[in-house]
Amino acid sequence: MSQDLYNTEKKAEVRRKHWTFRYVMVFASYFTVFCSIHSYASIYLLDRGFNNSQIGLLLALANIISALVGPVVAGKIDKKILTNIGASKVMCAMILVLSGVLFFLQDSFVAVFLIFGILYLLHMIYQSLLIALSFEYNKKGCNILFGFGRGMGSVASALTSLFLGYMLNIIVPSQLPLFFLVFSAFNLVCMILFVSGKEQKILEEDGEQKTKEAAVGEYHDNFFSFVKAYPKYCIFLLAVICFFFEHNLGNDFLIQILRPIGGKDSDMGTAFFIAAMLELPVMTVFAKVAKKIDVGILLKISAVSFAIKGAILMFATNVGGVYLSQCMQIFAYALITPGAAYYATAKMSPQDQVKGQTYFNCCITLGGVFSSLIGGRVLDLFGTMAMQGVGLGVAAFGILLAFIGVERVEKG
Fold first, then answer.
1. In 3D, which of 287, 360, 407, 285 has the Cα closest to residue 132?
2. What's the Cα-to-Cα distance from 232 to each of 71, 184, 339, rounded to whole Å?
3. What gap in Å lies between CA 175 and CA 178, rounded to an integer?
4. How far apart are CA 306 and CA 248, in angstroms?
5. Which of 306, 307, 289 is nearest to 298 (CA)?
6. Share of the chain above pLDDT 70, in %
7. By three-state DSSP, how is residue 204 classified?
8. Distance, CA of 56 to CA of 394 (rounded, Å)
9. pLDDT for res 6
10. How far is residue 270 CA from its own chain's centroid?
11. Using CA atoms, how far apart are residues 317 and 358, in angstroms rounded to an integer?
12. Beta strands in 131-187 (DSSP E)
């Protein structure tokens, strides 16, 4: 057998090795950590003596810093200074170490504030890298079904939420970092097993010429040049801030919304479970749907659905109403997450796609910043109804921005 034929067969063999399964394991394990840190932030911090305004400040600062650092990391990856896989492993390892430190802390308010904040911001940056990882390895010839992988991440989040909701009937919330530690350890193992050094070398050698061809064009190294190159996309990003302002109000302060209408901590776990499970079918079939319905239209449907979801939650008078609002997740979050990834890939040059996805995640983060700062304060001063009313108004403005900024793209 000639050396060229051997190399060709070797490359083909590497590409056949269950890449979707590997990606599912990485993304699902990531979302076990995400659920435990993000969805249960309020319960954990309230137990550690934080009030609503302090929780809002902490989450806002973490979101602001991740929004500043995320594009810098993405820029280094776009320029091939860092590898996506390498940066992901480092962040995962840092989350593991910090989770262990947080678990062994006693009653230091300042230490909990700092360490939990760092955990939160690292996890926000890490998510955009994992999303970009799918598209990167697809370009290398590895067949990864992103929608299915992302949907299974939602399933993992749902099961984790249900599990933690049950566990909080047995343990005290201050013990939650034990689960951060266990889940992040599993995520690191999955990240290490995602691709071997030998496989990476084969894929890099094969993709080197394709990478050079794809990298023709100007790098938009800073935010202002990016805005100039993609003005409509940036209007869409402003809309994303609005949607996730409302979305994060409902997530971060859900326990405060539930308790006045008779809900318990376990009901919060069930609510997150419903929303996450409904994401799976939509995300799994998204690529097929996008071949029949324009991605731009799907993003506009998502925009309207965020507002409807918020309105149902705002006027819920019992736990059943909260569960009903979570059912709108199938048209809101479940459409915008894969939709934005496909939209960025369709609308941007290859050297800007990691940045495009990172800016999308940064805008999710900024939505969290404003919801944390404003939501916690409004909640303390005026109550849950006023807080949700503000969120609904912001989401309505986001619909207007989305209809201005989102353009049609060729069917996928």
1. 360
2. 19, 37, 16
3. 6
4. 11
5. 289
6. 89
7. helix
8. 18
9. 40
10. 20
11. 38
12. none
Q: Which residues contact 412 (CB under 8 A, 6 or more apart)?
A: 287, 290, 291, 295, 342, 346
Q: Looking at the domain assignment, is residue 255 inside a domain?
A: yes
Helix residue ranges per DSSP H, 328-411:
333-347, 353-382, 384-405
How far apart, in whole angstroms, are the C-alpha atoms of residue 16 and residue 8? Answer: 13
- Nearest residue to 309 via CA among 289, 325, 290: 325
Residue 326 domain-assigned?
Answer: yes
Tell me the C-alpha distance between 65 and 313, whole Å. Answer: 30
What six digits make up the tokens of 188? Answer: 């690191």
- Tell me the HSE value of 188 on the side-chain side, using a 13 A CA sphere: 16
Q: Measured between alpha carbons, how far is 324 from 316 in angstroms, rounded to an integer?
A: 9
CA-to-CA distance for 159 and 217, rounded, in angstroms?
44
Average pLDDT, integer, range 326-334: 91
Q: For 183-225, write each residue's pLDDT tens digit.
A: 999 999 999 988 777 777 766 665 544 544 444 455 666 677 8
H/E element, 184: helix 177-193
Task: Give the predicted TM-score (pTM) of the model.
Answer: 0.74
DSSP 3-state of 144: coil
Q: Are the CB atoms for 164 and 269 separated by under 8 Å?
A: yes
Q: Which of 143, 130, 164, 147 is nearest to 279 (CA)?
A: 147
Work out the pLDDT band at 369, boundaries 50, 70, 90: confident
Tell me the three state secondary structure of residue 108. coil
Count up the domains in the chain and report the number: 1
Q: Is 292 exposed, middle or buried (0-12, 13-18, 19+ CB in 10 A)?
A: exposed
Q: Return the amino acid letter for 86.
A: G
Q: How far from 300 is each of 170, 238, 389, 398, CA to CA, in Å?
A: 43, 14, 22, 10
Q: Is residue 253 part of a domain?
A: yes
Q: Tell me if 387 sits within 8 A of 264, measured CB to CB.
A: no
Task: Kindly state whether residue 47 falls inside one of the protein's structural domains.
Answer: yes
Dihedral sign from CA coordinates of 23, 121, 70, 93:
negative
Name the residue range of residue 71's domain.
15-203+221-405
Do residues 284 and 147 make contact, with C-beta atoms less than 8 angstroms apart? yes
Extract the tokens encoding 303.
Answer: 């925009």
Looking at residue 399, which CATH number applies to its domain? Answer: 1.20.1250.20
